[in-house]
Fold each of these.
Amino acid sequence: MSEIYFPPRELEVMSVLWRLGSATVAEVREALREDLAYTSVLSALQTLEDKGYVRHEAEGRAYRYFPVVEAERAGGSALARIRDAIFQGSAERMFAQIVSDRGLPREELERMRRLLAERLGEKP
Amino acid sequence: MSEIYFPPRELEVMSVLWRLGSATVAEVREALREDLAYTSVLSALQTLEDKGYVRHEAEGRAYRYFPVVEAERAGGSALARIRDAIFQGSAERMFAQIVSDRGLPREELERMRRLLAERLGEKP
DNA sequence: CCTCGTCTACGGGTTCTTCAGTAGAATAAA
DNA sequence: TTTATTCTACTGAAGAACCCGTAGACGAGG
C-alpha cells in the first residue's frame, strides 16, 4: 500500500540497478549519462538505502547495491499516480496516450493486442 | 521537446486545474484532500506560474488560474520517463503492468482493444 | 612511501513545502 | 459614516528534501 516515489536523480540510479540487477557505486556512476563525482552517486545510493529501496553487501573493499523494490511494483505505483492525477483515473486515456507514440513498432503493438486478448479471455 | 516535471504537491494542484478546467485559489484549496493554508496553495500556483505551467486572469478580486500545458502532453512526458527508467524502454512491459490491475472494468479493456485495433489497422 | 579506489563525515546551494504576518479592498455592521 | 469582518494577494522566512561536492581516513597494490 505504501506509496513509492523517486525524485529525478534517485530514479535514474534505481533505473541502473533494475537494469543491471545490482551494481557498485563505480558501476552506477559509469552507467549514468552525466558524469557526477563518485560521492554524489554514493550519496544518492545512501539516501535510497535510508528509504529502504536498496540494500548493500560488501564485495571486496566496495559495496554492491541491490534494489529492494521490484521495478514492476515501482512502476505500478508510478502509473497509478499518473493515471489518477493526469488522466483523471482513466486507464483508457492513459493507454491512448501510450499507443499514440508514432515510434512504437508494430510488433510491440501486436504483442499488446495478444496480451489484451488473454486478459479478456479470462475465466468468466 | 522540453521536459515536463511536477513535484508531488504541484502535480496535485495541476490535477485539479486539469479536472476543473480552471480554478481560483480557494477552489483549488477546496478540491485538495489535505487541507492546507490558503497561502500554501497560492504559493504552489505562483511557483507553477513562474515555471510557465499555469497563467491567471483577474476575476473580481480573485485570480482565476488556467493550465497552460495540456494533460496529454504532461502525461506523455511522464509516461515516457517511466517507460525508460522503470520498464527499460519497453512500452509493452508498461502496458502489461497497466492491464494487470484487477479492478479494471471489462468495458474499459474492450475499448482499449478497439483502440488498438484501429491503431493497427492504419494504412501502411 | 605513494597512489588509487573506497567509504565516512560534513557542508553548501537549490528546490520544495508550508505558513505567519501584512496590507488592500469589498462587504457587513454599528 | 465609521467600524469591523472577510476575502484576497504579496512577502518573507523557516524547515525539509534534494543534489552535488570537498576533505579526510583507510586499506590494497605498486
Amino acid sequence: MPPHVHRAAAPGHPSRGGRRRDPAADRAILEAALALLGEGCSFADLSMDLVAQRAGVARATVYRRWRNKEELVLAALGSLDLPVPHLEGLPLRDKLVALVDQIRHRGQDTLLHRLLAGLVGEAARRPHLVERFEETVVAQRRRAFEQALSEGVESGELRADLDVDQAIEMLTGPMLSRLILRQRPVDSAAFAESVVDMFLNGTRSRPGR
Amino acid sequence: MPPHVHRAAAPGHPSRGGRRRDPAADRAILEAALALLGEGCSFADLSMDLVAQRAGVARATVYRRWRNKEELVLAALGSLDLPVPHLEGLPLRDKLVALVDQIRHRGQDTLLHRLLAGLVGEAARRPHLVERFEETVVAQRRRAFEQALSEGVESGELRADLDVDQAIEMLTGPMLSRLILRQRPVDSAAFAESVVDMFLNGTRSRPGR
Amino acid sequence: MPPHVHRAAAPGHPSRGGRRRDPAADRAILEAALALLGEGCSFADLSMDLVAQRAGVARATVYRRWRNKEELVLAALGSLDLPVPHLEGLPLRDKLVALVDQIRHRGQDTLLHRLLAGLVGEAARRPHLVERFEETVVAQRRRAFEQALSEGVESGELRADLDVDQAIEMLTGPMLSRLILRQRPVDSAAFAESVVDMFLNGTRSRPGR
Amino acid sequence: MPPHVHRAAAPGHPSRGGRRRDPAADRAILEAALALLGEGCSFADLSMDLVAQRAGVARATVYRRWRNKEELVLAALGSLDLPVPHLEGLPLRDKLVALVDQIRHRGQDTLLHRLLAGLVGEAARRPHLVERFEETVVAQRRRAFEQALSEGVESGELRADLDVDQAIEMLTGPMLSRLILRQRPVDSAAFAESVVDMFLNGTRSRPGR
DNA sequence: TATTAATCGAGACGGTACGTCGCGTCTTTTC
DNA sequence: GAAAAGACGCGACGTACCGTCTCGATTAATA
C-alpha cells in the first residue's frame, strides 16, 4: 500500500469496497487552477491551499490526485482541449499559417502562455516535466506540422532535402518566443502569415530570378 | 532614512558621509548566485540564505542591495558580460549566423538559459521584470541584428520591404525556444546556420536552380 | 479558515474533523520554555526557535498555539501548578504567614520570579497581558487572602473597618517587591513572619501593654 | 585605546586635541529616551535608532556615550531629578506618608514606573544593572527612610527593637508592587496614608481604644 | 444488512524560506 | 577627535507554503 496511489481509483481499479473518488472534484480542482492562473496568479503565487479553497475541496483531496503543484498544473494544462484546425484541402501556405496561428489561439486570454511560462522555470530541474510538457503540448502539434510539411515535400512545393525538425523550429519558435518568453500579445494572424511567408520565400531580394 | 534605498550607493551618488557599500560584496553575491544557478540549482531552490552564505556575507547585506530574489537574479543575469562578436567585413550570412549562434554561447554551461527559464515564470506577473529582461538581455542583441539586417537591405541583398522586427523574431525565436522553453542543448553552429539559411533562402523548391 | 485561532482546540471545542492538536506538544513546549527560563535564560534570550528545538517540535507548532513569545511565556507561567497551603484550623497569624510565604515558594529556583520579572517589562504596553497576569497569578491568591482576612474580621481579631484590598497589598507587596523588583532571595519564613507581625501589631511602641 | 571609552570625555578629561563631545547631545539623547518612554513606548519598543532620530543625533553618538540600551535607559532614569521632600519638623506619621507618597510622585505620568518595569526584565540576568538600580533609585530614598525611622525609635514612638530594613520593605513594597508590578495608578495620597497607618498601628482590633 | 475500505472535510505537523527589524560594531567623510 | 551617515554580521521575529499525517464522518461495493 504505497503512500500515494495517484490515479489509483482510475477506471479499471481492482479494489473492492471503499468510497469512489468524486469525479466532480477532479473537474473543480482543474478548473480552479486554470481560473486562478487566468486571473493573473503566477505559478509561484498559486498555492495548493488557494486552489483547494477555490475548488471547494480539502487540500488533501488535491494531493490525493496529484503529487505536487507541478503535476497539478501540468494536468490543468492537459485538460485544456486543444482544437485541431481543419487543414483538409487547404494550400500549403494556409495550412502552415493555420498551424502557427493556432499556437496563439490555444492560449485564450493568454492563460495557457502564462501557465507555460510558470512551468518553464520549474522544468529546469525536473527533466520529466519537460518530457511531459513535450508530450502534452508539443507532440500532437508536431505531428500536424510533420504531415503538412511532408505533403509539401512530396508535392514538390518544398525542397526535397528539407530538414523537417528544423523547419518546425523555424515555424513555431518565433511565435513561442514572442508569447511565452517575451510575453507580448499577438493580436492578429498577420504574425503567423509573416512567419510562414518568410519561411517559404526567404528574405533575399530576387529581382532577376 | 528610507527603509530601502536599493542601489542608492550606485556611482554618482551625491551623499556625503556614511560607510560605502563594499563593492567586493556586490561581486561576491552575484558570483555566488551565478555559481549556484550554474550548479543545477533552480530558481526556486536558490535561497537568499544560501547565496549569502556562499558569498560569505550576511543575509541583510543581500537585501540591502536587492529587494528580493527576482531582483537579485536579474542583476546576476545582467552582470554576465556579453561578448559582442566581431562582424566587421563578414558577408551577411556569416554575420547572421554569428549573431544567432551567439545566443547559444551566451549561456555557457546552459547557466544563462536555466536562469532565464527561472525568470520567465516569475516575470508573468511582474511586468517590470519583463521590461528589465528586455533591456538587459534583448536590447543590445537587437541592435546588432538591426544593423546587420539594415545593411543587408541597403546593399540590396535583402528585400527592400523587409520587416526588420519580424525578421529578428524569425532569427532568434527558434534558438530561444529550443534553448529556454524546450531546454535542449544545441551543440554546434549547424543549428544557427540552418536557421539563417532557411531565413535567407526560404524552403520552396526552386526548380530553376 | 482564520489565520490564527489560537487555543481553538481547547477542551469543549465543538469542531468536528481535522487532526487534533497533540497534547504532548503542548506540554513539551511549556516545559521547554520553563526549563530554559529556569536555566538562567532571560525573557529576551528565550527564542521561539530555541523553545521549539528543545521541545522537539517545529516552530510553527509553537506559533499555532501561542501568538507570540509573551503569550507563550504567560501560558508557561500559568501551567505551573500552584499548591494551595492548608490553612484549616490554623490561627490567623499562621494562616497569613503561610500565605505570604507561599509567594516565595511558588517561584521554585526563582524560576517563576525571573519569569515574572521578564513579563513585567512587556506588560507595560500590553494591558491584556497585565490582566492575564492578574487572573493567572494574582486572583486565586487574592481569594485565599480575602477569606483569611474576612474570618479575622468576623472573629473580632481584626478591626471591623479593615480595608481588605489595602491589607492584601500590605501583606504581599513587600515580598513581591523584594523577590521580583529587587530580585533578592528570601531564604526563610522569617521574612513572612516579620511582615505579618508588623501588619498585625504595627510598629508603635506600646509601653503600657 | 579601548574600543569604548564611555564617558571618557566627561569634564576633567585630560586628553588634548580633538573635538569635544557636544553636551547638548547628552541632554538631547536622554530627553528623547524619556520622551519616548513617556509616550507609551515600552522598553522593548524603544530602539536606539528611534532615540537617536528623536534626539537628532547619529546612532553612533548614542553608543559613544552608553554601551547599550540598558545603560542608556538607566542613565535616563538617573537624569530625572528627584525632589527630596521637606520633612523637617513634621510628625513621624506625616514624614512617612510623605516618603511613601513620593514614590508615587516620582513617576510623573507613570513614566518612571514604566521605565522601571522595562528594566526589571533585563535586570534578571544582569546583576550589575540591579546594583545600579539600587544605587540610583533605592539608595537615597532608603537613607531618608532610615533617618525618619531611627528618629522614631529614638523618640520612643517606634519600638526599640524595630528592624529598620524590614520596616522599609513594609512601607515601600505595597506602593512599588502596585505601581510597577501591577501597573495600577494611584491617584491620591490616601494609599500612602493607609500604608503608613497600618504600618504604625497594625490591624488588630483593640477593644480598649 | 452488516462489514469493510477508501474518500472527504478539516486541520495539525515538521520543514524551509521569506522579508523585516534591531543590536552593537565598523568605516568614511565632514567639521 | 567627534559627529552624521550608513554598511556590516548576526540572529530573532512572525508569516506563508510545502507535502505528510491524523481525525471523525461519509459512502459504496462486498459478504
Amino acid sequence: MTATAARTSPRKRPGNGAARPVDADEIGLDALVGHAGYAVRRFQIWIFQDFIRTLGDVDIRPTQYSVLTVIGANPGLSQMAVAKRLGIERARLVHLLDSLEQRKLVKRVKSKVDRRSHALHLTPQGETALAKFKRLAAEHERHVEEKIGKENRERLLRILADFT
Amino acid sequence: MTATAARTSPRKRPGNGAARPVDADEIGLDALVGHAGYAVRRFQIWIFQDFIRTLGDVDIRPTQYSVLTVIGANPGLSQMAVAKRLGIERARLVHLLDSLEQRKLVKRVKSKVDRRSHALHLTPQGETALAKFKRLAAEHERHVEEKIGKENRERLLRILADFT
DNA sequence: AAAAGATTGTTGTTGACGACAACAATTGTC
DNA sequence: GACAATTGTTGTCGTCAACAACAATCTTTT
C-alpha cells in the first residue's frame, strides 16, 4: 500500500489551543508501533540501564565489559582488531583503554612484530575482575529473562545472531 | 551454574608482545554471544543507520520522526505529555521542537486552559511532510524485513511490544 | 634502496542524546 | 493568601558515533 492510506486520524479535541491534560498512556503512537527501530530503541535503553545498575558496584558499563571480554578471550589483539570486531571507533577505544589501564585491568604491550600497534592483555587483576563481572552480567541476563520471558530471550538471540 | 565454569580459554598465541594481524572475524566474542544486550545494541546501530540513510534526503532523524508522528496522531498535546510518552527528557524536547518549528513543521500554540503549557500541532506543511516521511519510513522498514526476514521482524515486534 | 601510499594509535572537533540542576511563570492545594 | 507542584526553558556534564588531521611505522612500487 502507499502511504496515503495511513491516514493519521487525529483522536479527539483537535482544536487549536486545547492541551487538556491527557492520561499519559491514552496517547496513540500511530505509525510508531509498526516500527522495529522504535521498539528496539526503547528495549535497548531498558537493557542498558539494567546492566549499568546491576554492574553498578563494580562500575563497569556495557562497552567496557565488551572490550574486557574480547581481550580476555583473545589476548594479544591490537586496538584496531578489537575496534573492528566490536564496531567501536578506534578513536573511541583509546579513551576506553586509557580508563581500563588506569584501573590496572588491561595493559598495552608494545608489539615487536608491528611497532605501530599495541598488544592488549588483561592483567592478573583484570582476569579475576572479569570473572566477577561475568557473574554480575549473568545476573543481569536473568533480569532480561524475567522481563521478556526465557523463550523470548532465546528467540531474540537467534533472530539477531547475525549482528554479533 | 556459577561463573567459574565459564573459563575464558585464550585461543592461541597467548604470549606477550605478539599482535599478529588477525583475520577480523576469527576473533571470539566469548561471553558476549550469550548477551541479549550486545545483540540488541548492534542491531539498533544498524537499524538507526539505515533509517538515517533512508530518510537522509528529507533530513529527519529517528527521534524527530517519533515526535512528529505522536503530535500528528494527537494534536494539542503538551510538551510534557509528548516527552513522557516517548521517554524523552522535556529539556531535550525543547531543542527538538525548536528545530522542527524553525522548519515550519510544528507550531507551539499557547494553551488557554493552562497558560504554562504549549499545545503542539503540525503545520499544514508539517502534515504533508509527515506523510512523505512515513512513506520513507515504511521503505526503511522493508529494509529491516530484508535483513532479518519478514516473520522474524514480526516476532521481534511481538516480543518487544511492552516497551512501546 | 628511495619514494609513495597505507595502516596504527592518538588528539581534537562536532553533533545527537540522556541525566541533572536551577529558574520564572503559572497552577493547584491547604 | 501562603506554599508546594508543574511546565517550559536554559545550562552543564558525560557518553557516544562520525570525522579529520597527525606522527610513527609498515608495505608497495619503482
Amino acid sequence: MTAKRSGARSKRPQRISQWSQPAQEPRSEPPLSRERIVATAAELLDAHGVDGLTMRRLADRLGSGVMSLYWHVDNKEDVFDLALDAVLEYRGSPQTVQSQDWRGEVVHMLEDWRASMLRHPWSASLLPRRALGPNILSRLELLSKTLSRAGVADADLNVAIWSLWNYVMGATITRAGFDLSDDDRAAAQKRLEHLSERYPTIERCRLLLDDDWDGAFRKGLGFLLDGLSPK
Amino acid sequence: MTAKRSGARSKRPQRISQWSQPAQEPRSEPPLSRERIVATAAELLDAHGVDGLTMRRLADRLGSGVMSLYWHVDNKEDVFDLALDAVLEYRGSPQTVQSQDWRGEVVHMLEDWRASMLRHPWSASLLPRRALGPNILSRLELLSKTLSRAGVADADLNVAIWSLWNYVMGATITRAGFDLSDDDRAAAQKRLEHLSERYPTIERCRLLLDDDWDGAFRKGLGFLLDGLSPK
DNA sequence: CGATTGACTCGTACGACGTACGATGCAAAA
DNA sequence: TTTTGCATCGTACGTCGTACGAGTCAATCG
C-alpha cells in the first residue's frame, strides 16, 4: 500500500522542505505566490466544483496571465494536490495530552475530518487518487497512536486503521456526490414509483429518502468501533 | 438520500423500459447500437482509464463517425452511466433460495461487488457521483433483505446498509486509486525516510507498505459485521 | 409509381481546455 | 555598465465535447 506520484517538483529553487506549511494570509494584493494560487484555487473549487477550476479562470481571479502560474506550479495536478492538503489540516483536541477516552478522541478526529471534506466537497473524491499529503498523514499517525494506546493488537492495527479510513472516505464521498442543490428530486421521485415493486425492502425502509446523513455516520461509526474494540 | 441526474433520455423513441437489460453480444460487426457503444466504452475505460475515454476514440474503435454516437446516446455522461451499470451486474449465490448463513451471503455479495469494481477500476470512483442504476439497486435490495431476515432491527437497517456501502466504496476507491503499475515506488520510498521521524507509528506498523488488500478488506468487513450483528 | 417520411450517419465548425515555447521586464550582482 | 537570475505573460498548438445541418436509405403512403 504505497502512495503515489508527486515526484520531483521542477524548476523553482524548491521550497525549503518540499511540502511546507501551505497557508498564510492572502497578502495585500498582487505578488503571485504559491500560497495565493493554492488559496484561490480552493475558493474556485468551492464555488464551481472540480470541473470549474481552470487555469485560465484561476489566472483571471488572481489578476495574472495564465502562464505566470506555471512558474510557481508544475501543472494543474499540482494545484489539486496542494489545494487538497491545504484543506485537510487538523488542530487536534487541544492540549488534552492524552485523555483515556480514546474512543471519543477517535470519533472527534474522524468527524472533524469528514466535516472538513464536506466543507469542500471536491476534496473527498480527489483524496484517494492523489499522493498522501502531510496533513492527512498526520491524521493517520494520530489515529494509529490512539488505537495502539487503546490496546488494539499490532496485528490488527493496520486493518483497524484502513477500516476507519474506508468508512470515512466512503461515507464522505457518497455524501458529497449526492449534492442537495439540484432539482433531481422530481426524477428521483418518479423513479421511486418503479422501486416499490422491484425493490420492496429498500422502499420499506426508505433507504434513499432518509437524509439524516450526520446521524447515520455517527451511528455507523459507533458500530464499527464496537467491532474494532479490543475484546 | 436521493439519487441524481438521469433525467429524460432525449430523442430516440426511448427504449422499451427506460433502462432495460444493458448487455447482449457484440453482434456481427457494423450496425451501431447503444449496446455496442456501451460495451466498447467499457473496453476503452479498462484499457486507458477514465481520461482515456473520448468520444473520438470511441467512434474510431466502432468504425463510425463521432457524431453518429450522439444518435444513440445523449452525451458523454450518459456513456459513463451506462457503462457503469453494465459492469455492476450480480448473479447472486445461485439457488440457495435462502440459506440461514446470512453472514456468508452478505460477505459473498460484497466481495463480488468489490471484485467487479476492481476488475474495472474506473467504476469505483464513478459510482458515487452518478445515479444509482438498476444493478446496484438490486444489490442494495438483496443486502436489505438479507440483513432484515438476519434480525437487524428496522431502525438500524439504514445505518447498517450505509455502513457496509461506505466500507466497500471506501476500500475499493482507495485500492483502485493506488494502482500498482507506476514506478512511484521510488518516490514513495524516498518519502518514507522522512516518515520514520515524523510519523513513527505509521512507520512501525508499516501501514503504507502492507499490500494484502484482500485480506485487510475481508478482516475489516468481519469487524464491521461484528459491530452490526443484532445482539 | 413517385413523393414523403423518419431513422440513422457524419463532416464541419466553435469555443473551451492544458501547456510548450520564447520574448520581455526588472532587480541585484559583478 | 553589464550581466544574471527571477518572474511575468502573449501566442500558438493540439485536444476535447458537441451544435448544426446536410446527407443516405428503407419503409410508408397517396
